[in-house]
């Protein structure tokens, strides 16, 4: 699942370890989500959205949503 | 210097496995000595002979507990490795069973199934590095 998590994290001045602590997951999990090697559960996606105070779809691209203006 | 957090799930897992495997070795030695000294089949010998398998069962429980405590990504990886190792062990044991049945190949001791599982688990770790 495409994500801009890495950019958001960097902009917030967080390291992968910092974000992992905030989310209560391992650093490997953060790395995997950032590099599109793991599709997070809905629960984890909501946690990530909560950390950045953004809607989930502003962080993760919804591949099932029809593109508007296409 | 890196501090080891002994309360972390991975540290607890490592310590538990070490503890149970130590008990396993101790029980193997005790049962081995006893069985050589008293080879006649008695209820005590049967009981003692089964004892080393109990720590083995506990190590599997430790792995499953670690899986349940870790985060979703690590759980997915560990589960895939565990299932892969289990599948390969089942496959090899079944194949060997047919070799014994049809080709009169020697039967290996069944207690080797457990180390075989961990060998396959180690191999799966090299190949299963991420899960979607």
Q: How much helicity do the residues of chain A have?
A: 40-55%
Q: Label the CATH architecture of chain A.
A: Orthogonal Bundle
Beta-strand segment tally of chain B: 0
Mean pLDDT of chain B: 92
Average pLDDT, all residues of chain A: 92
Binned, the helix content of chain B reads over 70%
Q: Would you mind describing this structure in some detail?
A:
The complex is a heterodimer of chains A (70) and B (132). Chain A has 70 residues and is mostly helical. Chain A has one domain (5-58): 434 Repressor (Amino-terminal Domain). Chain A contains 4 helices and no strands. Chain A has helices at residues 5-11, 16-23, 27-34, 42-52. In chain A, α2 packs across α3. The mean pLDDT of chain A is 92. Chain B is an all-alpha fold and 132 residues long. Chain B has 2 domains: 1-69; 71-132, no CATH class. Helices cover 77% and strands 0% of the residues of chain B. Chain B contains 5 helices and no strands. The radius of gyration of chain B is 18 Å and the shape is flat. The two termini of chain B are 34 Å apart. The model of chain B has no long low-confidence stretch (mean pLDDT 92). The A-B interface holds A 24-26, 28-29, 32-33, 37-41, 43-44 and B 70-74, 76, 130-132.
Secondary-structure map with pairings?
The complex is a heterodimer of chains A (70) and B (132).
Chain A: H1 5-11, H2 16-23, H3 27-34, H4 42-52
Chain B: H1 9-37, H2 43-50, H3 53-69, H4 72-103, H5 113-127
Helix pairs in contact in B: 1-3, 3-4, 4-5
How is this structure best summarized?
Chain A has 70 residues and is mainly α. Chain A is 49% helix and 0% strand.
What labels describe this entry?
heterodimer, A: 70 residues, mainly alpha, 434 Repressor (Amino-terminal Domain), globular, B: 132 residues, 2 domains, 5 helices, 77% helix, flat, transmembrane helix (chain B), membrane (chain B), transmembrane (chain B), Helix-turn-helix transcriptional regulator (chain A), DNA-binding (chain A)
